[in-house]
Every structure is written in C-alpha cells, then in structure tokens.
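sry for the spam today, last one i promise. struct tokens for design, 502 residues
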C-alpha cells in the first residue's frame, strides 16, 4: 500500500509509524510538513534549516496543546520561522486530535494574516497532509475564515479590524505591530486591538488560552506589557545571540537556553554572521538591540532622549573663559578581547553649558591605557583635572602616572551605572550638554540612546565627567546614591535642582 500523491511511497508499516510519530510529536510534525510550505526543499534547491530554537518553540507549543500551560509569550527575531510554526502548523497539529478547536490569529496587516490562513489551507490540501487520513473536511470557506466539519475554526484578523460572531479557544498574536508603527507613535494601537477586540472573542466557559509571538519593538509593546503584568505562564525569550546577563534560567517547563557562550547565535545558518555584523554596526543599532536581541528600548532612548543632546563644531567655541576637565573610564585587567572599551573624554565647561571637545576610545591593555592617558593630557595641557574611575584600573593608573600627568583625581561612586546616567538626564534634558559634530559624536549619541542596553562606556565616561564637576561645584544631583526608575529620571532631576554646574 502507498500514500497517494505523496512525494515518496510508504508501505503500511512505514506510513503508520510516520503518522504516529507526527501525531505524538509536534516537532516531528513540523519537520515533516515544512517542505510543503517551501517546495524548494523537496526539489533540493534549498535546505531545511532546523535549529534548537525550533525545538524550543515546538516544546512549548506542545505543552500548550497538552494543557500544561495556557498562556505563552515568545520573543524571537524576524526570520526565525515563528509564523509558520506558531500560526500555521500548530493549529493544524491540534486538529489531528481535537478538530473542534477554534483559533483566531491576528497580525499587523490584514494581508499578512490572510496569507497565513491561505497557507494553512494549502497545507491541508497537500499530499503530505493526506497521510493523516483525518475524518473531517473544510466546510465554510471565506477569505478570512474557514471551518471544518467538526466545527473547528481558523479565523484571520489584523490590528484595527473588528470581529463579530466568532469566538476562539486560542487567541494567537503574531507580530501585531511593525517597527514603523511603534517609531511613528502608534504604540497603543496594537494593545487596544488586543484588549478591546481580541480579548472579548474567547470561547465562553473555557480558560483563557493565548499565544503571543513577536520580535520586541518597545519596552511597552503588548508582549512586554503582558509579561510585566505576569500574564504568561511561560515567557520564552530567545535572543539571536546569547546574552548570559538576560538569561532567566530554567522555566516552569524545565527548559533553559541551550547556549552557554556569550554571542553564540541561535541558528548561524538562518542568520548569517555578516548580516549580524551589519545590523550591529549599522546606522540604527536599535534594530539589532530590540528586534534581534529582544532587549527593547524606546524610540529615542529609555533614560536619555536622543533629542536632548545639542551638537556643535569645536572650532566655533570661544574657550578663553571657562573650565577644562577630562574623564577616563578604564577596564579591568588586560583582556582586550572583551566587549568593554576604554574611553577618555575632554570637556569644556562654560557657564551652565558642557561641551564634549574630544574623545578617544579603544580596547587597550594597561600599558596602552597609560600611554593614551599621557597622550591626551599632552594634547590638552589646559585640562587641570582628570577624573579617573578608581574601581577598574584607575587606582593603578593614577599611581603610575601621578608624576607625569598633573591633576589625576580618583573618581569613586557607590552607585550603579544606571543611577549615574539617570542622574545627569535632567541636565541633558535642559539642553545644556553639547556633543561635537561628526562620526565620533554620532557614535556617542547612538550609544547613549540605547542605554542601558548594549555597550555603555562612552555615556558612563560622560556621567563621570559631569557628576564630578557638579560635585566639585557644590551642585550635586539628589538622585546620586538612590535608586531611580529610568522612566521617571528626567522628572526627578527637574525637581531635584534647577542648576547642575556652577
């Protein structure tokens, strides 16, 4: 006996074994059905990439189908195969054992949502799906909704659309917003659609069942808001590259990120290294940080708004009257392969304004650090005080260079970087801080905008400089030494003091 129209023949034993494996394991079902969605795999024109992140998705979705969890949030990067697995294949796998199950899936556009529903219908009609010899068939079939003969439903909708009549056992949110919408100030649109429309479309008498899968776009996007309110039974976050700092550890289902090496990609074959490097070094690091690393920041920065900084040409500043200071943020030890940078900055303070006049930055061992400190001091002899953070290599550098560089002052802080940066946010918001024009200034503002995500050496050096001169002038921000939520930092600063630098 063979399975009609299958891309290869199976005898009775083989067919029954494959049918059983696919029915018992969602992962096996996905690997069997994915070639239907991409015929090039069958023809040999492309490969079936199947990575540990796919297994993680399948493991958690199978737990959903088995009732071990009811609310699943998934944060994963674009191009990971999430839509085909979550929105197309999972409801069909559920229908193998419960054809009466009803789903409503919602995407950011109606076109995308309808396409996913059409793809689902095509898979049902494929030769491979005939292997399962289901005892149901498609009855009602419209553009956005189809039913099977066992009353199962697949309803497609999109953000902003209305739904009347239908109710579902499971609501699936699949990328309900685009980056352009969030950056354009439409953050609330997809949240309102969920709360006002989708949440009212649940099947009466059944527990709430929700799957939300998306790339992170903003700290307060819908999946972030639900996660912050402890809505999900499991929040599965799979950054493109492994970051042990944000690894939450083992979840309630016993799953943990399989990676242990920082920077390890979730699937190097699907997200090539050159693409990742371009995203990291491109003009908008927010795309990499939020959509790929799942550590979202707001459009203009979470702590310091990128629009608060002022730009200037150092050649146009009158420096005959004012104060010159320098600051250094050094690294621990001599390991120059780590992500931390050494940063040295020269600031000119005039009245209530602070101007970043020059900056050097690099991954340097201790001898190179001391050389750079001497070189920068020789170029700016007008700098009378150099503030060096003493907790890293600072104390050692001061001891070595005290006889060669004048004005070396240890900077000691018992607060975290986030508190230090939050403490200068009010001063930056008042638009009294000027950053030089050009690539160096562009890189500085790019890093400051992404804070507290990613590399932070430049903005931390800036906080050392501004806080040090502020303390020496007697104008100390009241937030130093106390925890301040970054979201409210600017308001706190305006209340704390009307003047920062004397």
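last one done:
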């Amino acid at each position: 006996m063979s399975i009609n129209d299958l891309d290869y023949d199976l005898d009775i034993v083989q067919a029954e074994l494959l049918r059983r494996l696919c029915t018992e394991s969602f992962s096996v079902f996905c690997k069997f059905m994915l070639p239907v969605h991409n015929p090039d795999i069958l023809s040999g024109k492309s490969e079936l990439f199947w990575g540990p992140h796919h297994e993680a998705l399948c493991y958690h979705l199978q737990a959903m189908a088995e009732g071990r969890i009811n609310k699943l949030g998934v944060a994963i990067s674009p191009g990971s195969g999430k839509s085909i697995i979550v929105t197309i294949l999972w409801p069909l796998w559920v229908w193998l054992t419960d054809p009466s199950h009803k789903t409503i899936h919602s995407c950011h556009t109606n076109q995308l949502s309808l396409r996913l529903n059409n793809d689902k219908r095509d898979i049902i009609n494929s030769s491979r799906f005939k292997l399962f010899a289901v005892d149901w068939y498609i009855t009602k079939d419209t553009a956005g909704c189809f039913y099977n003969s066992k009353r199962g439903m697949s309803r497609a909708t999109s953000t902003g659309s209305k739904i009347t009549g239908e109710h579902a056992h499971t609501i699936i949110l699949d990328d309900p917003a685009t980056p352009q919408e969030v950056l354009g100030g439409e953050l609330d649109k997809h949240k309102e659609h969920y709360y006002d429309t989708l949440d009212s479309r649940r099947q009466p008498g059944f527990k709430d069942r929700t799957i939300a899968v998306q790339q992170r776009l903003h700290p307060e996007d819908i999946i972030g808001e639900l996660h912050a309110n402890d809505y999900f039974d499991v929040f599965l976050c799979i950054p493109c590259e492994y970051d042990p700092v944000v690894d939450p550890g083992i979840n309630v289902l016993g799953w943990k990120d399989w990676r242990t090496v920082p920077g390890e990609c979730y699937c190097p074959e699907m997200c090539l290294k050159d693409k990742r490097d371009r995203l990291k070094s491109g003009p908008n690091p927010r795309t990499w940080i939020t959509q790929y690393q799942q550590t979202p920041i707001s459009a203009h920065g979470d702590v310091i708004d990128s629009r608060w900084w002022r730009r200037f040409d150092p050649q146009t500043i009158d420096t005959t009257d004012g104060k010159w200071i320098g600051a250094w943020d050094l690294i621990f030890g001599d390991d120059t392969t780590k992500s931390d940078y050494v940063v040295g900055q020269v600031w000119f303070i005039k009245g209530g304004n602070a101007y970043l006049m020059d900056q050097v930055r690099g991954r340097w061992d201790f001898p190179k650090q001391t050389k750079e400190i001497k070189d920068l001091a020789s170029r700016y002899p007008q700098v009378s005080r150099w503030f060096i953070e003493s907790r890293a290599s600072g104390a050692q550098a001061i001891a070595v260079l005290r006889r060669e560089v004048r004005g070396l002052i240890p900077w000691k802080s018992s607060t975290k970087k986030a508190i230090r940066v939050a403490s200068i946010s009010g001063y930056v918001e008042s638009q009294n801080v000027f950053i030089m024009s050009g690539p160096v200034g562009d890189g500085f503002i790019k890093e400051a905008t992404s804070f507290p995500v990613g590399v932070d050496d430049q903005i931390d050096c800036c906080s050392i400089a501004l806080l040090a001169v502020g303390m020496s002038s007697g104008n100390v921000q009241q937030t130093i030494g106390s925890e301040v939520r970054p979201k409210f930092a600017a308001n706190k600063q305006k209340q704390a003091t009307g003047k920062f630098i004397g």
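The longest helix spans residues 82-97. ok im logging off now
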